[in-house]
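User: I'm putting together a teaching handout on how multi-component assemblies are represented. Below are the sequence lines for each component of a complex, exactly as they appear in our records. Could you produce the 3D structure of the whole assembly as structure tokens, so the students can see both representations side by side? Please keep the chain order the same as the input.
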Amino acid sequence: MTGADLPLWAAWLVVALVLTGAAFSLTGALGLVRLKTFYERVHAPTLGATLGTALILCGSMLLLSLIEGRLVLRDALIGLFLTVTTPVTLLLLARAAAHRDRHEGNPGAPPKP
Amino acid sequence: MSRVLPYPVLSVALALTWLLLNAPPTPGSALLALAVGLAVPHAMRPLRPQSVRVRAPGALARLGVVVLADMVRSNIDVARIILGLRRGERRTGFVSIPLDLREPFGLTVLAVILTATPGTLWVQYDSDTGHLLLHVLDYTDGDEWVRRVKDRYERPLMEIFA
Amino acid sequence: MSAAAVLDWGLGLAQGALVLAMALAAWRCLRGPRAHDRILGLDTLYLNGMLTIVVHGMRTGSGLYFEAALIIGMIGFTATVALAKFLMQGEVIQ
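Assistant: Of course. Below is the structure of the complete assembly, with chains in the same order as your input.
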């Protein structure tokens, strides 16, 4: 187990960051189940992809920096990568859904831009 | 300059990524980072990526702060909607926004911003008419969303990537 | 409570929440009803799985999990893009 020689406030801070981030991710996944239509549901996972990931990665960087005694910024790469890729995935999914809904003439299909 | 370093920003970004992945930096990994930063942009050359010009660094920093604040606020808003903590009726809908921004990098950054703030979803952009179709989780009548996107994000982006 | 105990319990709780999020995403992935719902569920499943591994790396203090998380993120992105492309071009004639 790590962090035996860590100050208590640091441990609480890391745990608070990670737990808040995990709570946001869980809320996002809950939205995936609870919301009614597809276009509403696409909004839900963004919670985990933005603030949830950011808080967990901040907690991870803080913990590793304190344990190793130097600034560890490696985890920011995951955040950067996710920031660049999430728009692409969601945009493609939304376009695929819009395309299919329009093609099939569903009542919830998006209008032309 | 352009012969050795065709894309200076890409070179710096690649070298920094390499150093971050191989932290803590040693002389060997610094040398490799330099090699990666010098060699890989040449491999990118046949793809002919457009070079980016950032005009207003101050506006970029301000936009970053605005987006960060909006991200936190809209995260909390959407979490409240999902958990059912918000009273009153909620409607969702599509909003069509006429954009004046045509610069590809500006549009890319706008897509990242709108995705990073939950509650707005980029559905489709028509490059012929310049209209953007957005799905919003908290729909309001009138042009409140249009003004919000144009004032808060589009104007600084046009300033930055003009 | 000692710092190690706080970390152990807190991070364990966070892992539990993330695994629950994975279960909810898997439910949406299995339930559908449309194909794009399933892909959205799969994407969320990948994301939460990646975060679970990051938190696991924090609990063990090993740097190896970082690479695993990065690779899962990349594979999740590629898979989702490929599937969304397939939906647009494989099933609906353009």
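A couple of points students might notice: The two ends of chain C are 62 Å apart (CA to CA). Chain C has one domain: 3-91.
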